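In the current project phase, work has continued on tokenised descriptions of protein folds. One protein thus recorded appears below exactly as we store it.

——
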Amino acid sequence: MGPTWNIGSGVLIPTMLKRVLLLATVIAAIAVTAQAPPGPRSFGQGFAKPEGANFGGNFNYEVAKVQTPEGLRVRGRFRIAFPAGGDRPENVWEMVPDELGVTGFNANFAGNGKRIIKRANGNEVINGRIAVHVEDRKRPNTPPNGPRDLIRFRFTPAGTTGQVFEWQGLVMEGNLVVVPPPAGGTTGGTTGGTTGGGN
């Protein structure tokens, strides 16, 4: 039995040949992606608090510039939660980054997010934008008693709802890491990709 032929755009192409061409295209795309140097990234998890304070928050995040068919895009997540205490309700901030910039072992990233205030009669959600700054101070070549990692964030509510909130703490438990791009690789800009997108 001979090969099956499909008619498309007035050209007869064997089905088997079409499959081979498609496979070759996929392999070429994978090879290009694999050769592309990784973009800057940062990740961390732990507990942080201001120096000398007893009250702090638990953070968990990861953010990176990744190669996509449309170019570099920012992907990741950010969450920091402060437990309830006294007359203070639990507060949680969550964000999906669409911007990332890395300079040395410092990273700045931002995106649309929300503040969740957990009250006994229900949760209050305030939408806004969150900007985060992290400093990777504890690295393999630094002394154990060296400076602690730092995390700082600013929440700006959308419109006129809520209040601007800023907070900074030192990482007391856990760790955060900032990975700059390799030499000759992608630079750590402040936009979320080649067109500023991110989601």
About this structure: The chain has two domains: 5-35, 41-179. DSSP finds one helix and ten strands in the chain. Strands lie at 5-8, 11-14, 41-49, 57-68, 71-82, 90-103, 106-119, 122-135, 150-157, 165-179. Helices lie at 15-35.
